[in-house]
Amino acid sequence: MNGYNSEIERIKTLLQTKELPGLKQQLKMAPATRLAEIKKSQSSLEHTSSTTIIPKKSAVLVLLYPKNNKIHTVLMVRPSDNSVHSGQISFPGGKVEKSDLSMSHTALREAHEEVGVVPNTVELIGSLTKLYIPPSNFDVYPIVGVTHDAPKFITNQEVYKLLEVDLDTLLSKDTLGYKTITHRDGNEFIVPCFHIQDEIVWGATAMILSEFMDVICN
Question: Does residue 107 contact residue 141 with C-beta atoms inside 8 Å?
Fold first, then answer.
């Protein structure tokens, strides 16, 4: 546990003192379609600022916790259904509600609802760069928190299964790769991704992971 605590302190210091790499690092794991969407949205903001729809806000929790003598984080695989997030892999999180006091409040509330993480057991140690998701017009705020014990996860109907992955695996070059994905428009394209427990983590979640791993590697 002493090793866990010292490593968490190192990560905490990096998050709170190091300049975040931001969009540049996020884009290393962005699919080509996302790059085109971001470019289009930026052009729209430049030319139609008076009529631009303000992005909705959401927050996710990048939770760090000890398990098997390693630091882990948890991802959710959503059910395959007719919803907009069908089959997607994400961090616990969701949209901001009017009753939420802050982005941290949103991330903790959603993590409690979706995977049973008790908010008062989580120490918030920093945040990552806001990520804009053009298709849904959402700004996502990644909040980083830690617990001193492995949570007892209890999932709700929004979760098909959990992926508990240690940071060593995420940092391994063997985890990185590419995968052919069928886009929502029916076309196939190749995306950069993380291969985790027979699942493919790509898109916004991979982009958030890319920035987080860059921060803690230095």
Answer: yes
Contacts of 114 (CB under 8 A, 6+ apart): 76, 92, 93, 94, 155, 156, 158, 159
DSSP code for 148: S
> Is 49 contained in some domain?
yes
Is residue 191 assigned to a domain?
A: no
Partners of 199 in the β-ladder: 196
Residue span of the structural domain in which 13 resides: 2-173+203-216
Contact 124, 111 (CB under 8 A): no
> In residues, how long is the chain?
218
pLDDT in tens, the chain (218 residues): 778 999 999 999 999 999 999 999 999 998 877 766 666 655 555 545 545 678 999 999 999 999 999 999 999 998 876 655 567 899 999 999 999 999 999 999 999 999 999 999 999 999 999 999 887 889 999 999 999 999 999 999 989 999 999 999 999 999 999 998 877 677 788 899 999 999 999 999 999 999 999 999 86
Q: Which residue has the tokens 């949103």?
A: 106
| Count of beta carbons in the 10 Å neighbourhood of residue 39 | 11
Contact 89, 173 (CB under 8 A): no
